[in-house]
TrEMBL record:
Zinc finger residue ranges, RING-Gid-type: 404-447
Annotated InterPro entries: CRA_dom (IPR013144), CTLH/CRA (IPR024964), CTLH_C (IPR006595), Fyv10_fam (IPR045098), ZF_RING_GID (IPR044063)
One of the record's GO molecular function terms: ubiquitin protein ligase activity
Coiled coil: none
Lineage: Eukaryota, Fungi, Dikarya, Basidiomycota, Agaricomycotina
Keyword Metal-binding: yes
GO cellular component, one term: cytoplasm
GO biological process, one term: proteasome-mediated ubiquitin-dependent protein catabolic process
PROSITE patterns named among the record's database cross-references: CTLH (PS50897), ZF_RING_GID (PS51867)
SMART domains (UniProt xref): CRA, CTLH
Organism from which the protein derives: Agaricus bisporus var. burnettii (strain JB137-S8 / ATCC MYA-4627 / FGSC 10392)
Name of the featured protein: CTLH domain-containing protein
Amino acid sequence: MANNKLNTDGIFLLEQPFVRVPYENYRRIFRTSQRNVEKDFGPLQNASNDLVNRARAGTLNDEEALKSIDSMIGRVESLKRKLSDLNENAGKPTLDVMRERLNHLATIESIQSTAEPEFSRWADTRLDRWLVDWTLRNGKERTAKRIARDKDIETLVDIDLFSDIKRIEDALARHSCTEALAWCSENKSALRKIKSTLEFELRLQEFIELARQRRSEEAIAYAKKYLVPWQGTHFEEIKHASALFAFPPTTTCGPYKRLYDSNRWSNLVRSFRLAIYDLNTIPNEPLLHLALYAGLASLKLPACYDIQTKNVDCPVCDGESAALRAANGKESDVVMTSASTEFNHDVAQPNSATLTTMAISSPMSGSTSVVTPASFSSESQPLGLGKLAEEVPFSHHFNSTIVCRITGKVMDGDNMPMAFPNGNVYSLEAMQDMAAKNNNFVTCPRTGTTCTFSELRKVFIS
């Protein structure tokens, strides 16, 4: 039960954006309501003050007073309808989403062990959420909607947010800044808090496009209206861009050729994505990748990246590279593993066990060999999960173990590693069993080398 104890804090580490996204949506709705109130209450207050002043001065008759009051009542009723519609169409649905998500997270607090069925169900739902997140980030919106609908998790995923992201990114891909600038206007205060320069970059790009089309007068007017307010922090960029009038779009002058470069639009797409992710505390990597990183980091060994030690049964070794295909079908000797996870990495290993920064010493040869990350084969580039694993550190084992390829059992002081004259290593138990069945002769499964049991030598790990 102790090993199955639920790590609630660890689970919540990845759940901040899960709650933050609807919270940020509701904040925007609240700000919109606040702007509507301020916009309509200003004229109301002015009309009320004017009515009081005229009444005190004795210049207000009953008919004018009733007309002024009716006008104020009409304005208040209009504001009430506007706020009510906003709440029904946006505020209430967002609150319902927040409530659903908080209830989903609250389920964890009542679960004590990962072995409980409730946790399995919760974890399945979490995986579905992560799959939807991954599909949305990769532009597979229809697939995401289908998964959300089939799994009944529409309120637990951010399809609307990523739809907006895709809409704006598509506009930028069409060389239009209009949608992105509208988004910046809606989130001006939040962007200012995180010191984002996205709006300036968009304004600068629009100025560059005017210069590209040689519309000089419009470009100058645009710069005065939208770029000059940024001169306190971006004076050098503005000064640099102003010289575009002297250079045509076909210029070969490096600094101005880069300003005219169409790849700037791709940079704007990335800048926008980083800004909106930052505002909603969404990680740049898919949540599915972050979860996989944690598991792969505990399995990743140098053996996973060696052409002769790859194994398709290991997640880190995943991928059908040419090196892996060349190694398929061959046998191996000993595998280095952690105490809790025993994946065989030694496919087609010509010598003794490949260990993570460990040395294998043999009294027979008097030599010691160490395998380190520097010895990786350049021909064996990982694919699939192995590609993800490239970005995580190697697993750190306080107590490393080696496993016999024949029996699959850990070799230790009671089951010593035994080395053939050719250097291949198997467990004492496997060798004794083989010798008992073959008149004291043992055969290396990989090379077919045969010798007597007495010719085997004990291997000591240092």
